[in-house]
Amino acid sequence: MDRTMSESSTEATAEPTFYPGRRSASCPFVPAAEIRELAAAGPISKVRTWEGKQPWLITGYTEARELFADPRVSADNHHPSYPHIHEGMKAVAELSPRTMFNTDGQEHARYRRMLAKPFTPKRLEAMRPNIQKHIDETIDAMLAAGNSADLATALALPVPSLMICELLGVPYEDHAFFQEATELGFGGNATAEEQQQSTLEMLGFLNKLIEAKTENPGEDLLSDVAELVRDGELQVWEASLQTVGILVAGHETTANMITLAVIALLDRPEQLAVVRDTEDPQVLGNAVDELIRYMSIVDTGLRRVAVEDIKVGGEVIRAGDPIVFDLATANWNAEVFPEPGTLDLTRPNATQHLAFGSGRHQCIGQQLARIELGMVLQTLFRRIPTLRLTVPTEQIDFKYDAMVYGVRSLPVEW
Ligand code: HEM
């Protein structure tokens, strides 16, 4: 549902501010002005959403951490008060059984364990040579095609997509199909029908792959869940629903971070040099976390509902109240991150950000994302030192209205 101008205004209205806010073309990395205003006024406030709900908005860093760790805060998206992101997400929630994304406590832990195998530090470290190979080959292809490219489609999307395909055991030849379905789902404007349709298509696609892997397992995550199907622990479609989120979240988020990081670093040569020149994995890791903090790309907030009364930030959240966490403003809290609007890749506490969430549902793929981002950026700037944008920042097609912030295309030359 579209907002009107008056809906985004915070002035002279008794109505709470509309959420989510929108970043502006004049400062595309800065959190939405109206949400920064709320954050400046206090760590917790009320906003209103597309369906007329008035959830609590958590913008305070400490309060967010506290609530993410609180078992009285539930991720149950079947709860009648749950503040759905948009109509399409609500429609999909109605279809979905219980998964890692919408459960709490022991049940959530059980689902998460089923999918955890590829995300252990040892397995991720072992992926590095393969990630490097994909990055090198993708850059080779880009260079062979001329002296300009759309970096989003030539590099940022292919590398994480190739890796998530390998991790899950999905054929990369099908990338156009799942990338389009993801773009639709994350776009923020999908109708309920479109969202349901794209989810059903993705599930049908995964069902077939998982069924095949119950007969012929490989060394991948779909084979892990296929084993649970064979053992009668999960139905095929449940296994698909557990893994579809990994396929979706596993490429689009990292791809968006890559393009945004390139834009920011090309504009700040001294910061770019930190990434390009370091041989120290800790320095690179810290730089990547600062980029992730600074961008805080999950733009529509993390959604929850209170199941008991909770006192926080001078307010009482009542049982049944919807809650939204705004990660961008929490990550731009000046008390925790001094001069938060300065991208400082040597920031000492950069890793303390909340851009991957916090608590039980904290991003399962965060380490993979960090590894990919660091390796892609370092290789890109080392191999193409003359890389530059071909359009001014104001003309870049930023995703102001999407669930995950990023760009639709990034014209570059060298
Ligand atoms: C820069 C890249 C990424 C960002 C910013 C990001 C952000 C997030 C955030 C904020 C959450 C918390 C959701 C919540 O609490 O409701 C989350 C959860 C999750 N992410 Fe990521 N993510 C990224 C990359 C990835 C990758 C690469 C994968 C998979 C390979 C992935 C898979 C997941 C999954 C499955 C969850 C749900 C975990 C749970 O509910 O227990 N993410 N992510």
UniProtKB/TrEMBL annotation:
Stated family: Belongs to the cytochrome P450 family.
Cofactor(s) listed: heme
UniProt superkingdom: Bacteria
SUPFAM superfamilies referenced in this protein's UniProt entry, alphabetically: Cytochrome P450
Any one Pfam family match given in the protein's UniProt record, by short name: p450
Annotated organism of origin: Nocardia aurantiaca
Composition bias type Polar residues, residue spans: 1-12
UniProt region (Disordered), positions on chain: 1-23
One function term, GO molecular function aspect: heme binding
The protein, known as: Cytochrome P450
Keywords associated with the record: Heme, Iron, Metal-binding, Monooxygenase, Oxidoreductase
